[in-house]
Amino acid sequence: MKRFTLLFSVLCLLSSGLLAQIAPKVTRTRIAGLDVLLYPTGVKNVVNLKGSLPAGDVFATANPAVATLTGMLLDQGTTRQDKFAIAARLDAVGATLDFSVGNELVEFSAKCLKKDVPLVLSLLAEQLRSPALSAEEFDKAKKQFAGTLQRALESTDNQAAEAAALALYPAGHPNRPTPHAELLAAIERATLAEVKAFHQAHYGPAHLTITAVGDLDLPQIQAELAKGFAGWTGGVALPATLPASPGDAPKEQTVFMAEKTSVSVIFAQPSRLRYGQSDYQALRLGTAILGSGFTGRLMGNVRDKEGLTYGIGARLANDTFADGDFRIAGTFAPNLLDQGIASTLRQLNLWHEQGVTDKEVADRKTNLIGSFKVNLATTDGMANQLLATVNRGLPLSWLDTYATEIAALTPAQVNGAIKQHLDPAKMVLIKAGTVPGATAK
């Protein structure tokens, strides 16, 4: 029934013309150094903006906390007006404008009415170009960042994910995180001078991408961007990376955390693939069959049939800008931990050794294509996909050929990709929580 409903929704979208060719309708220009992608849709009065620039944590080599602290200060006032004035102007028109810092990128997202696009773009330019970077807000950001990390240290999921990434990626790889304990010390010693220097060195238009989708006045948006970002210079490209080599970390690790009601478990291995590379979609489809949602094998067996887990799934991750990884993540009650791990291994080995079936491939292709098309039918989803396509280094035509690429995948290709890129015997096993028999180190 779910499959029929999704297919029906996609057919309705097709009949309404929402899924016509995308790439030819995108106006892509370089304005004041920015890579600008504009995609008008039939929605009335609403505009979604998404964008990014390379100024994430991978650039904070001297102090790993500085990139995040810099991004946290973008919406805390500018050299022209304080944060309260900015918030009041956005609230008065019902607009939103948010910033976030990731491993590689600073990202921003905005939503507003068509008439308020000039206001939002002017505020975006002002906040990116001339944040106040005041001592008072810097001290607040340090406390907020430290508090977030302290809470993360109490999360079994977070601690398992950190241990897995440290085991998978060697020093110098962009996907290798700074351990939380080290990051807390870095926050403490970070200075406002470092933040100001980081902003000066890494923020600029050279590699900044912005997408706008919805009820667009193209000449108006282009003029506002030209005005708001005129004269701004700088910006840096992401560094090139090589695929991660297998590390020498122990294949099984326990992060003991006292008095936890569940244990987070991760099986993981480098995929050595980036999104868009050959075999990626075949491996992605196979991984979805194993562990995507309630229709995946893991949920169907480990949870539904055996009742051993609160939740479990498999996915490919961390592969937009560098080679990523395959991981299974699940949670188990401490008294069911050994049974849960054994059950997960049975499903993993069965999937790897015997492969996926023709029916599973056909069903999952329908799901992947349908979900992709439905997502593109919203202004927010389309803006996200345009930005993701650019960041993945793919041509915009990929948005139009994705469905054909997925539909053409065969069971042989999927099973071949699983065999070629993964080996359960080489995966690391991470357990974080109150693991029976373990003690704190």
Helices and strands in order:
Blueprint: H1 2-16, E1 27-31, E2 34-40, E3 46-54, H2 66-72, H3 83-93, E4 96-101, E5 105-113, H4 117-129, H5 135-152, H6 156-168, H7 180-189, H8 192-202, E6 209-214, H9 218-229, E7 252-256, E8 263-270, H10 280-291, H11 297-305, E9 311-317, E10 325-332, H12 337-354, H13 358-376, H14 379-391, H15 398-407, H16 411-421, E11 428-433
Parallel strand pairs: 2-6, 7-11
Antiparallel strand pairs: 1-2, 3-5, 3-6, 4-5, 8-10, 8-11, 9-10
Tell me about this structure:
The chain is of the alpha+beta class. The protein folds into 2 domains: 207 residues, 2-Layer Sandwich (Cytochrome Bc1 Complex, Chain A, domain 1); 182 residues, Cytochrome Bc1 Complex, Chain A, domain 1 (2-Layer Sandwich), CATH 3.30.830.10. Helices cover 46% and strands 17% of the residues. It has 16 helices and 11 strands. A 6-stranded mixed sheet has the order 1-2-6-3-5-4, with helices on both faces. It has a 5-stranded mixed sheet with strand order 7-11-8-10-9, sandwiched between helices. A hairpin with a 7-residue loop joins β9 and β10. α10 packs across α13. The protein is globular and about 60 Å long. The N terminus is likely disordered.
